[in-house]
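Step 1: inspect the first sequence and its tokens.
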Amino acid sequence: MPDVPSEFAPAPLLATLLEHRVRFVLIGGMAAVAHGSPFPTEDIDITPEASVANLSRLSAALDALAARVRTESVPEGLPFTHDAESLAASDMLNLTTRYGDLDISITPSGTAGFADLITDARDTTAFGLVLPIASLADVVRSKQAANRPKDQRVLPVLREILASRFRHDVAAEVADGSETSSHEEGRTRSRSDLHH
């Protein structure tokens, strides 16, 4: 019988992906938590880069994780065979692993996939690992497009976090502009004084 995870352990799950040099962006609930969401999550969502080489590495990582297809009726999951070709053809996979649940989405709702998400993703330290995490704006964009009940529940909070960051950034830009203007005004006055 395969290992049934007794608890969610994101660190070794993500570490296994990194050890196999899988290129991916962390998305979904865990990415939202990294951006300050108060809603806990018990799975990992990723969007992998969809090249044959990368999906081959992902397939090897899934073997190392003892990944199986997640179903409600079979707690330990159903076995499945996979390679780069089959992973590319599966736009969405809901898996269970020795460290907890892993959802793989090649093209998350509202996005164009890895190339789209990696543009604004930022490397962030989480669980002692450096992980490429989707921007909050992209997390919101995808959840708005998916519009599932669980997305509707968290979106108001995520939008408020995003709006608060925007207000903070605008305030910082205004403050920087004021300081620059004051500095330039001081320099202008100094030059004017020299001519008198």
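Step 2: inspect the second sequence and its tokens, then contrast the two.
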Amino acid sequence: MKIFLDTANVAEIKKGLEYGVIDGVTTNPSLIAKEKREFIPLIKEITAIIPGPVSVEVTATAVKEMITQAEAYAAIAANVVIKVPVNLEGLQVVKTLAGRGIKTNVTLIFSVSQALLAAKAGATYVSPFVGRIDDISGDGMALVEDIALIYDNYDMATEIIVASVRHPFHFVQAAKIGGIPNVWIVTSFNTPSDAFSSVSDQISVAPVLSRCGTQTYGSATFSLTFLGRRSRLRTPSARVRGNVNAPVALRR
């Protein structure tokens, strides 16, 4: 299990670390802009506080400029992961950065094809936006299952970050998919927070899988991130529809 805070607020990160359960941080340009601080000093402070991965997103759009920006960010600290959009330019950037030993998180994934191309380019992570897919009457978690199956078929090492999570059941589904053999799942579960001040009696981190319910806290957010184990997938998992309390039946 891994837990990542989805924030660029240093006070929130320090508060989260007090609970002893934080493994990394994800950021984006909006979260960083919200802090009204100089970019590089802020990222330096975050990476110094958190020993695990810290995602930092490029804002350039041309390949050369994206690579230059990514290398500058990666030079800040060894635990920086570069967020890159999934487009033709982004794939070129991922391929180049992978060749230089720089980890990447390919974001805005909406299809299996995008996830497959990102993995082929050398992405460390891909981030399918399950909530946004559900918002347009799609099935975001079905996409995650399909990506996981294909990655397993070809023994791809790319990890899946389940992003744009809308409710706790997304979190449970992703954790179950992460338990499928030979698939690594990192689930980004965004919950409005001053949650850390209430987590002991509202969520209770340890049994969160069995106590999922809709929780509303404050205006900031944090992410719970779970990591599954890898072995060999024989058949895809059954998909749960309807009763959210029904168990997932897995066949091997």
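Step 3: confirm your contrast with the notes below.
Confidence is low (pLDDT under 50) at residues 189-252. Residues 130 and 140 are 4 Å apart (CA to CA).
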